[in-house]
Amino acid sequence: MKYYLSSIFFVLLCMGTFMQGYAQRDNPLRVELNANLDMESYNLVPCGENGLLVFFESDKKGSKLDTRLWHFAFYDKNLMQKWLADTALIEGAKFKGFSSDGNNMYLLFHDADKQRSDHNIQILTVNYGLNTFSLINGLAPEKSEAIHFSIHDGNAVIAFNNTRFEPLFILIDLSAGSSKEIKPELEGLNIIQEISFDQDKKQMLIILENYLGKKQNAILALRFGPDGNIERTYRINPAIEGKVINEARIASTAGDTLLIMGTYSNNASRIGGDEDDAGLESAGYFITKFIGEKQEFINYYNFLEFEEMYRALSSKTIADLRKKAEKQKKQGGEYSLDYTLILHDVIPFMGNYVLLSEAYYPEYRTETSMYYDYYGRAIPQTYTVFDGYKYISGIAAAFSPDGQLIWDDGIEIRNIMTFNLVTYMESYSSQTELAFFYSSENHLYYKMAGSPESDNPLQNISIESKYKGDKLMEDLGSKMIHWYQNYFICFGYQKIKNNRISGGKRTIFYFNKLAFN
Fold first, then answer.
1. 100, 170, 208, 411: which sits with the fewest CB atoms below 10 Å from its CB?
2. What is the distance in angstroms between the CA of the first residue and the CA of the last residue of the chain?
3. Is 200 exposed, middle or buried (0-12, 13-18, 19+ CB in 10 A)?
4. In the chain, helix, strand, coil percent, each to 5?
5. Angstrom distance (rounded) from CA 463 to CA 20
6. 503: left (phi over 0), alpha (psi -120 to 50) or beta
7. Contacts of residue 400, Cβ cutoff 8 Å, sequence gap at least 6
8. Better-predicted residue by pLDDT, 305 or 282
9. What is the pLDDT of residues 199-208, one digit of tens each?
């Protein structure tokens, strides 16, 4: 263990030195575009070493009926603009996801609100080298929400959940434009949690949440063959009375072995339950292993067992969580610190599997105003205002293939309050090191995984803005995503004040290029 810590410390110094030097460049690799904080209109898609796509919906009508123009800009890896282009898409369509086959970028747009007879799905193919666009149209059932989009073997795979709780898939042949609908025939009400692909067997695997009535019945893993039929069904058996699986992610599909990880709680979830607004509460992580359709084991790890996690939290946060746990214990439940979590995909690392989630809670404030009755008497009126979701911590844990906890880690999340529940943390791994990081208020926060908080506290560096004298006034939804190799792109919306330049204040959508080394 001492050797491992010294190795991490060396990499941390190199990373800190490199990032500090990068951030202090006279001309940081940064682009700023005029924006409005009340309307998040820009979309950013990394295109590997080819560059970046940035695009938004305009207020101009297209030449065809019921269409609207979208503006696109392409930047190279030095953030130099290479071309601008416009294309018309169906009015009401929202950008839902992207995928690449190495040669082209595919963008999915879906109008889930308006009933159409011809098409409500459009896949825009972008050839960044030739600056050409092409469109493929499709039709999804009304009141369906696209929750997955990817490209495999010349086909676009789109998965939908809907208000009828009858999930389905649409496969679109990118060459012929033909489509095929796959609707799993399962009893009860069902919701897709995750989709992954076994590239060796050319098979699709999905995690499905199954309900009978409004109460959760089971978490299922389904393996589909190339023809779209279910070849194998795995039912996760909690094994211990009172344990309920909340969410699951596929960790490994080696041979006939299936490894699944996720979160669990001590109360069964319900469709339409009170937890829907804030999310399900989880007591810890689980890991289970199947060989064939037989479940070999399932191991549970309560968050109370995660020593390093608490060292990353503020004393107030820990006190609030422990008060909640004590209340639960008095009611006869498992002594646990329940979190509402956003779960990431599993991270393979050094022969083990790392599960990462982001903990948050809804934050409210109480306001009092006065109103006057018929006789002019002042009467106070108190009401609660929802301020947003406050993120508090990243929770990471590494597990061996045989289900043993190797290490745990906590990453304090600072100054992220949002109305949109999305992932803000990212990870980057080399052969022997794994880093967790996120951006907030013009700072990059990062921490190396698997070492004690005392040896490896959360660190941060400033993300350089465009002009000297810039002062950040407001930051909205800043995120970091992987671009290519060890490079990342940091982007978001900001309001900046600078008395040295004309205008003094500016509201912008920005993106910076950063590197880990």
1. 100
2. 23
3. exposed
4. 10, 55, 35
5. 9
6. left
7. 351, 352, 406
8. 282
9. 777 889 999 9
Phi, psi of 139 (to 5 degrees): -130, 125
**Rounded to the nearest 5 degrees, what angle is found at the Cα of 319, between the Cα atoms of 316 and 320?**
85
* 233 vs 222: CA distance, rounded Å: 5
- Please give the single-letter amino acid code of residue 250: I
Task: Write down the pLDDT at residue 142.
Answer: 85
pLDDT tens profile 487-516? 999 999 999 999 888 888 999 999 999 988
Residues in CB range of 452: below 8 A, 6 or more apart: 5, 308, 311
- Residue 365 CA to residue 383 CA, distance in Å, equals 9
Strand partners, 352: 349
Give 187's Cβ-side CA count (13 Å radius).
5
Please tell me whether residue 433 adopts helix, strand or coil conformation: coil
Task: Name the maximum alpha-carbon separation found in the chain.
Answer: 80
Which amino acid belongs to residue 18?
F
For residues 340 and 356, what is the distance between their CA atoms, to the nearest angstrom?
13
Measure the CA–CA gap between 417 and 401, rounded to whole angstroms. 36
- Tell me phi and psi for residue 163, to 5 degrees: -70, -15
Query: Residue 134: CB partners within 8 Å, gap ≥ 6?
Result: 124, 125, 127
Amino acid at residue number 223: R
Alpha helix ranges (H) inside 337-485:
none
